Amino acid sequence: MDRDLVETVSLRWLRRLVIAAFLVVTVFPFYYMLVLSVRPIERLLLDPGSLVVGFGELTVATYAEVLKATDDGGQGFLTFIRNSGVVAVAATVLTLVVAIPGAYAVARLRFFGRRQVDFLFLAVYLFPSIVIAIPLFVVFSLAELRGSLFGLVLVYISQTLPVSVYMLRNYFETIPVSLEESAAIDGAGRLGIIRRVSLPLAMPSIMAVALYDFMIAWNEFLFALLFLVDKPDRWTVSLGLSLLADGVEVPKTVLMAGSVVLTLPIVILFFASERLLTEGLTSGAEKG
What's the rounded Cα separation, in Å, for the pair 16 and 231? Predict the structure, then answer.
């Protein structure tokens, strides 16, 4: 065997080992969380390290308790899921409504300060969330938006809009200007060019940005706690999960069931849009 063949085979197996290691590190926590959520608490206390659940041990009572309304003795996660869904979808849609024309304008139009726009957008993330939390709390309290889901949506838009514009702008710049010029020659206006040419070509990137915005709004905890702490009927899933984690009398199996309920929608969305997400994240990486 020559040296090149040995190196090729070694690198091939090393790559497989690295991928397997990353897969185990990524999948194992979710698998163990899922195992704990379907085991009775009595069996868990007897054998907490078991990674395999017998068919006779499987139970969905933990999920029933998590999803059942608080008036019926449950944890009320159906209400939390509804609130999180409304907030995440609204924040995602409104962010895209503003980010798409904003990103297109930065990519195509010429105006004073255009080169500094990227820095201004990304400068938002130079400051930790806690720095702007208090000013937002004061402003929203004066505007009587504290405790409302609409106010929380506005906060999430302010958090996701800058990076959304930045990501979409990079993709719009990769679209050949000649395509838009051809549409303009055919009589299309600026809005027609955006709707018929730019948006269809940018759809993978738009889907990637939408998934990113949805994940941020679905998982966010700090601002939800700050604005909704005194309105339990408007809590999101992340707040409900923190309630389970702080509860001394809540079994850990119920806590794991709540964690699965929080994580599962994001996992389903990710795998359902994996191809579009991959195309969107890599789009705009190169020009030309």
Answer: 50
